[in-house]
């Protein structure tokens, strides 16, 4: 669950209509309650919008990161917009973005969630959505020590090795069945990644589970839908009342039913999985699992356990697949760069299969990873941060209660910072003016104390997969796929699943 910007991504006319109706009904109250905050002189420039609804209608197209970048041309690297009653400060440059995430962290460390996210996360009961408080510190330490930190990732190496060898085996079978056909890369990768996520969270892969509350047995595919696909869709469902706190009393029951259903399905499925796993733990099995470690904290409620274990499943299953798919797309599209990577692998590994031990020597591979994060950032806008006390950014006054949207997409497409930013060119990180630390200039994982906890896992899985794929096979795009760089969904997934021709190298 890595991008909570969904509340801006709404085009449904029916929602706009109910919004209008709501506003009409509330007209009188609005006048009373909508006391104008008196404007301070040194706030960032504001993009003009309509009374009450602010800039909402201007955000109708589904790609707010692009609209935001366009506004920056006129209003500069830091400006404000209004989404209904809330003020959103948009940051368009690496410098102010770093200032917000690192230097001013103490004033901007929490998050305000949309209604949908509040329901789906059992009211912030996960690492990524919690406020920066004792709970956050406790569970972040737990997730880093037992699952996502460098030491823990070493322990979990076996899961990644199995994932890679399964993918290669499945690829072999697919090629054998249809040597001249294209391979659906997304299916190949995502199934095995989900398997790995289940093992990390619950200590074992699960083929099916009986869920008493639903009165049926769910297959692995059902699990994937209930735990990953539906909540990702739900996360960007808009309750227009989010924008108008003074209209909270207007019912929106159809919307609410839909989200509650998603949340409760997820809840009962997680409950069944957790109960099943607790039984195994009693038999001494599956002890190296995130759940086991959470249970040992002893202070967490059922809601906490369910949300925290689910968090790992959804976070592990999505962004890593998105970034690997983009990398393979670019390598298939750019045969020269694919050859360069293949040559590097031959030079470092000779006739051995690439393993994680080789990764530190595979510099070009590392550049491929970071350049893909730059050009196709899976999280184009950092999950909104909430300003809980007055502060300053880029020399402007930022009032408490505002929210901050960091537009990573814009930071990474800026001509001043990156030559020919549209080009996917891993070599840029090897050239003279760039240093090793520049790899992190993309801020793809955020920055500061709330930076992504899973970056090591994402790097290991993505890099070892790419390396094995390129070592064993030549990759070529299907005709007509060269310019398909459109994105969709919360995490900037490729619009169409990548289908590629794959040819064994020998
Ligand atoms: C390429 C893959 C990934 C990208 C681009 C990514 C990106 C991000 C970003 C931008 C944030 C927000 C940081 C902020 O607010 O400053 C974040 C937070 C987080 N991510 Fe990731 N992520 C990735 C993979 C993962 C994986 C594989 C996991 C775990 C299995 C994970 C777990 C988390 C957690 C727990 C947080 C919350 C950290 C906190 O609030 O303290 N991420 N991620
Ligand atoms: C905002 O981002 C866009 C896209 O990277 C860039 O072209 C533009 O120069 C930036 N504007 C400012 C004022 O930073």
Automatic annotation (TrEMBL):
<dbReference type="GO" id="GO:0052615">
    <property type="term" value="F:ent-kaurene oxidase activity"/>
</dbReference>
<dbReference type="GO" id="GO:0005506">
    <property type="term" value="F:iron ion binding"/>
</dbReference>
<dbReference type="GO" id="GO:0009707">
    <property type="term" value="C:chloroplast outer membrane"/>
</dbReference>
<feature type="binding site" description="axial binding residue">
    <location>
        <position position="452"/>
    </location>
    <ligand>
        <name>heme</name>
    </ligand>
</feature>
<dbReference type="InterPro" id="IPR017972">
    <property type="entry name" value="Cyt_P450_CS"/>
</dbReference>
<dbReference type="InterPro" id="IPR001128">
    <property type="entry name" value="Cyt_P450"/>
</dbReference>
<dbReference type="Pfam" id="PF00067">
    <property type="entry name" value="p450"/>
</dbReference>
<feature type="transmembrane region" description="Helical">
    <location>
        <begin position="14"/>
        <end position="33"/>
    </location>
</feature>
<keyword id="KW-1133">Transmembrane helix</keyword>
<dbReference type="GO" id="GO:0009686">
    <property type="term" value="P:gibberellin biosynthetic process"/>
</dbReference>
<keyword id="KW-0560">Oxidoreductase</keyword>
<dbReference type="GO" id="GO:0020037">
    <property type="term" value="F:heme binding"/>
</dbReference>
<protein>
    <submittedName>
        <fullName>Ent-kaurene oxidase</fullName>
    </submittedName>
</protein>
<keyword id="KW-0349">Heme</keyword>
<keyword id="KW-0812">Transmembrane</keyword>
<keyword id="KW-0408">Iron</keyword>
<dbReference type="InterPro" id="IPR002401">
    <property type="entry name" value="Cyt_P450_E_grp-I"/>
</dbReference>
<keyword id="KW-0503">Monooxygenase</keyword>
<dbReference type="InterPro" id="IPR036396">
    <property type="entry name" value="Cyt_P450_sf"/>
</dbReference>
<dbReference type="GO" id="GO:0016709">
    <property type="term" value="F:oxidoreductase activity, acting on paired donors, with incorporation or reduction of molecular oxygen, NAD(P)H as one donor, and incorporation of one atom of oxygen"/>
</dbReference>
<keyword id="KW-0479">Metal-binding</keyword>
<keyword id="KW-0472">Membrane</keyword>
<dbReference type="InterPro" id="IPR044225">
    <property type="entry name" value="KO_chloroplastic"/>
</dbReference>
<dbReference type="GO" id="GO:0010241">
    <property type="term" value="P:ent-kaurene oxidation to kaurenoic acid"/>
</dbReference>
<dbReference type="GO" id="GO:0005783">
    <property type="term" value="C:endoplasmic reticulum"/>
</dbReference>
<comment type="similarity">
    <text>Belongs to the cytochrome P450 family.</text>
</comment>
